[in-house]
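Hey, quick one: can you model this chain's 3D structure?
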Amino acid sequence: MVNKINLHYQVTPVPVKKITEPHKINKDTTVNFKDLLNKEIVDKRLSFSSHCIKRLEQNNINLSNIQIDKLTKAIDKAESKGAKESLMLLDDLALVVSIKNRTVITAVDSERMKDNVFTNIDSAVII
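Sure thing. Here's the predicted structure for all 127 residues.
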């Protein structure tokens, strides 16, 4: 079989649609940088469940700003690894954290930590 090129065959060009007006950006849908930044800050905020707050108050446990910063960084790290529910060991505390919701679900001090079983977690982070 011999392939021949037919030089007498005409190729019909495809018509191109003309653009009469340039594309306009709807200014109502634009979001400014400040709004995006504030949303990102709110999304990264850490919260505590009412159960956790009750446990912390019962045991006179106060978390320092440094501990909260460490906890927030540990949540970010667990989130980057795909964790959903994590056991976080911070100093003498065990905290069960919902990574997706960025919420500390419960807190257990070192005295109550002995002979305890933590369930429904998919990761552990030692801080």
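One thing worth noting: Helices lie at 33-43, 50-58, 65-80, 110-113.
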